[in-house]
Amino acid sequence: MKRLLLFDVDGTLIETRGAGRRALRAAMLEVLGEAGMIEGHEFRGKTDPAIVRELLRGAGWDDRRIDAEMPAVWGPYLRELEAALATSELRPSPCPGVRVLLERLSENDRYALGLLTGNVEEGAERKLRAAGLAGRFAIGAFGSDSERRADLPRLAARRASRHLGREFHVEDAIVIGDTPEDVRCARACGSRAVAVATGGYDVEALRTYRPDVVLDDLSDTEAVLAALEAVASAVAS
Question: What pTM was computed for the model?
């Protein structure tokens, strides 16, 4: 059976250098006149809309006002993100081992590759393009699809079924990410979870959330492939 691998972006596939935070701050100030306490705010594992909501709630906005005004943020955000990613200071790079791993996985008929990220879709595309990883993923589910990350695995499985012409069940998917939220969203849908300690949470911290596997990083291609094979086989059994 073909397994759906759903990769997070920031901290898992690419090393981020603050382009998203800078772009979001500029866009929120331009459109809303308010960016809250964005410099110290925790972004890891959250969807872009959830981050904006948290910042605005912290600044005293109610949800009705947030819902009405948030959509206007994303156009300026994407413009600012494109500009930030073009600078050498903020341009992202692939995390260790990612490029080779994706090449090997794309050659393996056992897997279909997708994205599962809190980024809005066009933001994820811009970041991956800037890191030289564009065009590697057939499908994805994004923060622009739902503010709740837990909704995304099921949506990704439905899209993979439609796009690839075969049925994928969310319970057979494997979510690969660097934060506790990646593990939680996988578990919420019955998916498997592989945690990678490349985004600010170390192995011991990630292990407390009980993913199926925890890896230091993705640099040892053979070890990663073996771990994925073990998780996929566990799904089958």
Answer: 0.96
- Residue 156 belongs to domain spanning: 3-16+92-236
64-93 as b/e, with b when 16 or more CB fall inside 10 Å? eebeebbeebbebbbebbbebbeeeebbbe
How far is it, in rounded angstroms, from Cα 194 to Cα 228?
8
Q: Count structural domains, the chain.
A: 2
Scanning the structure block, which residue is given the tokens 């994303």? 74
60: CATH: 1.10.150.240
For the chain, give the mean pLDDT: 96
Neighbours of 165 (CB within 10 A): 7
Tell me the pLDDT tens digit for each residue of 66-99: 999 999 999 999 999 999 999 999 999 999 999 9
The domain spanning residue 154 has which CATH number?
A: 3.40.50.1000
